[in-house]
Structure formats: C-alpha cells, structure tokens
Amino acid sequence: MEQLRFSTLDTAGVLLCLFAILVRFTVTSEQEGENLSGLSTNPDKDIFVVRENGTTCLMVEFAVRFTVPFDVLALNGIDLITENAYLALPRGADIEGKCGSQDAHIHISWNDNAYTLRIYFVKEISGKGRVWKISKVQFVYDTSEKTHFLNPYNPGKHTASTHHLSALETPAGRSYVCEAKQTLTLISSDHQKGVTVAISDVQIQPFDINSDFMFSEAYKCITDQREQLEETLPLILGFILGLIIVITLSVYHFHLKLTAATQSQLPCDRSMYNNM
C-alpha cells in the first residue's frame, strides 16, 4: 500500500514537472504586437512591430488608404445607388500578429474592431531562389459605423479579400521598400464590390530580422527603380551632351591653332612662288 502511494506521488510529480515545462514553453514563445506609429515623422505613416521573446520578428511601415463602395437608397426610395467611403489606417490602431519560419501574419484593428486589416506572408522557394511575399490580404469593415458610412442600405459587417495573391516578392533576408503608391483590389462579400487598398511609403519584413527594431538590407520595388532611372537619365544624357560639346570645342580650338601655325610658316611674298 505504501509502495502504491509512493508511485502515485511520484507520477504526480512528473506530471507537475511536465506541466511546468509546458507553461514555460508557452510563455517563452509568446508573441506581442506594438504600435510605434508615434515615432514616424509622417503623420500618414504607421509603424507596427510583432515581437517574440522580446525580439522583433515582423515589422511593417506604410501609409494605407481604403476606398469602400456601399449601397444607399436613391431619392425615390426604391433604387439603390453606390457611394464610396474613404478612410485611412489610423495611428491608434490595435495590433496582433504571428511569426513563423514559413508563414506569418499581422492583424490591425481600429474603431472597436469595426475595421480590421489582415496581411498574410509566406516564405517559399521560387525560380529566383528563396523569397517571401504577401499571399493574402483581407479587410473587414462595418457599414453600420457612422463615421464613414452615411445612410447605408442594409448595414452590417463585410469581408473583402484577395484571391490567389502573390505580391511584393522579395529575396529572403531582405526588407521590401517602395515609396510609390501601389493598389490592390479586394472582392467584398457585399455583392462582390471591389474595395481598393492604396499602399505607399512601404517598408516591410516578416522574416529573418537580425536586429531588434531594425530592417535588413532594402530591396527596392521595380516602380521606384524605374522612377529613379527616369530621374537620373536626363542628368546622364545632359552630362554626355556637355562632354560631347566640350570635346568638339576642344578639337575645333586645336584645329584653329594648327591652321594658324601652318599658315605662319608659308612665305608671305607671292613672287617667291615663281621660282618654285
């Protein structure tokens, strides 16, 4: 009997230890989101960070604006017409997220969860090697929220989503940077309306962040590269044209000096040619 009691206590101790280890593992893997938008000098730009074990594992900086179509009753009280609500991602939004080795996401909510922006990331191997990209974007909005929706017909919550998205493809270990405005069209559960999401001043990195609160090496978007080329190309062409002009003037000046030197060596008295 005493031996059985000892075994039971021993088993309970082992289970207690296992439970403590499990709790400790859960705590150490806890992830939290931080809104650092107040640090941005641009009032339209938001900064969100997801941290794991006290270390940054996902960072997002961008300015986001939404154009949301919704139905209202026409003056005749019968027909429906479509209006647009225009709203921006505010600085006081709440954030939560998840970091993983192959997938990650960030959820940004505001106005008591009347609005939620969800962005999903994946890391994979493509023809360019190991890359990460945005695989899905969702926007949840409530047309009964009166700040942006005036007299909506049949108000309620709707979800707008992308389909088969593959955006912002970036080499693994680098952050995506793009100043130019980029737009996504999300299809809404509200009669398949198209919700437009305009993103600008972007810098994002959902994986492989080496330093706390610090992005890795930037990977510029094609639009920025093209705009930079368009800005520098006139300068390059101007420099080449100026160089051609300088060379031409130098050659012309050398030709004049050479011609003058040749003429100075010729006899001035024409009678001297008679003996030649």
From TrEMBL:
Family recorded in the similarity comment: Belongs to the LAMP family.
Protein known as: Lysosome-associated membrane glycoprotein 5
Transmembrane portions of the chain: 233-254
Residue ranges annotated for the Lysosome-associated membrane glycoprotein 2-like luminal domain, each copy included: 45-209
Keywords: Cell membrane, Cell projection, Cytoplasmic vesicle, Endosome, Glycoprotein, Membrane, Signal, Synapse, Transmembrane, Transmembrane helix
GO cellular component: dendrite; early endosome membrane; endoplasmic reticulum-Golgi intermediate compartment membrane; growth cone membrane; late endosome membrane; lysosomal membrane; recycling endosome; synaptic vesicle membrane
Organism phylogeny: Eukaryota, Metazoa, Chordata, Craniata, Vertebrata
Keyword field contains Transmembrane helix: yes
Compartments reported by the entry: Cell projection, Dendrite; Cell projection, Growth cone membrane; Cytoplasmic vesicle, Secretory vesicle, Synaptic vesicle membrane; Early endosome membrane
InterPro entries to which the protein is assigned, alphabetical: Lamp2-like_luminal (IPR048528), Lysosome-assoc_membr_glycop (IPR002000)
Pfam families named among the record's database cross-references: Lamp2-like_luminal
Record's bilayer topology term: Single-pass type I membrane protein
Function: Plays a role in short-term synaptic plasticity in a subset of GABAergic neurons in the brain.
